[in-house]
Amino acid sequence: MTKIPFHLGIILDGNRRWAKERELPPFEGHKKGIQKVKEMARWCKNRGVKILTLFVFSTENWKRPEKEVNFLMRLASRFFNENIKELAKEKVKIRAIGQLEKLPKSLQKSIKKAEESTKNNKEMTLNFALSYGGRTEIVEAMKKILKKKIPLEKITEDTISQNLWTSDLDLIIRTGKEQRLSNFLIWQAAYSELYFCPKYWPDFNEKDLEEAFEDFRTRKRRFGK
């Protein structure tokens, strides 16, 4: 069987606990985690995934210590700046979704450059959920609909879906032992399959991805029928 999720979402969890168990500062876990992103993009593209959405930084993560947040922002900016050319060669289209206006200006600039450089790529779309929250996304969709002055009787589920930042998910993988969505693409996850891997994100490897896909192939997706 060759069934592969068209749209895969991954909740990258466990960077800090990975570092703590090794008696390292949290920053080391985040650095290790960001290195995994490029590998994951390649693994997914080679298997035929068309959209990969990575939950990198949530709206709730702004509550973390300022020093850690600033480090994460610099790390994200460096990732975009250093990997644009390689991802462009891989024909990967880069997008960022979330309340991007809250990000540092330098990071916004790096994102804009990455998006512009890869906008015509067709092999796979790589979404980075940054300053992202599922409930916030739905609120923003409502605002768009109101601005368009769409009559109430014409507002449907499709109307809302068309005004969200990305499309429905087929599979969500969460690393790091927790088993919850944590406000990740909650509208798009309505009928997605869920897979929880006990490994922390820095330890997640290609074999773990293949095991998740093997499990996905066994699922019978009835969509309520």
How many beta-strand elements? Answer: 6
CATH superfamily assignment?
Decaprenyl diphosphate synthase-like
Q: Helix/strand/pairing class, anyone?
A: alpha/beta
Stretches with pLDDT under 50, minimum 5 residues: none
CATH architecture: 3-Layer(aba) Sandwich
The pLDDT mean sits at: 95
Largest sheet: 6 strands, parallel
Overall shape: it is globular
What's the CATH topology name?
Answer: Undecaprenyl pyrophosphate synthetase
Number of helices: 7
The helix/strand order is EHHEHEHEHHEEH
The total number of structural domains is 1
Q: What's the N-to-C terminus distance?
A: 23 Å
- Rg result: 18 Å
Biggest sheet, strands in spatial order? 3-4-2-1-5-6
Instruction: Tell me the helix content.
Output: 40-55%
Task: Estimate the strand proportion.
Answer: 15-25%
According to CATH, what is the class? Alpha Beta
Characteristics of this structure?
225 residues; Undecaprenyl pyrophosphate synthetase; 7 helices; 6 strands
How would you explain this protein's 3D organization?
- This protein has a six-stranded parallel β-sheet, sandwiched between helices.
- The model has no long low-confidence stretch (mean pLDDT 95).
- It has seven helices and six strands, in the order βααβαβαβααββα.
- The chain has a single domain (7-217), classed as 3-Layer(aba) Sandwich (Undecaprenyl pyrophosphate synthetase).
- Helix content is 44%, strand content 16%.
- Strand 3 (92-97), helix 4 and strand 4 form a beta-alpha-beta unit.
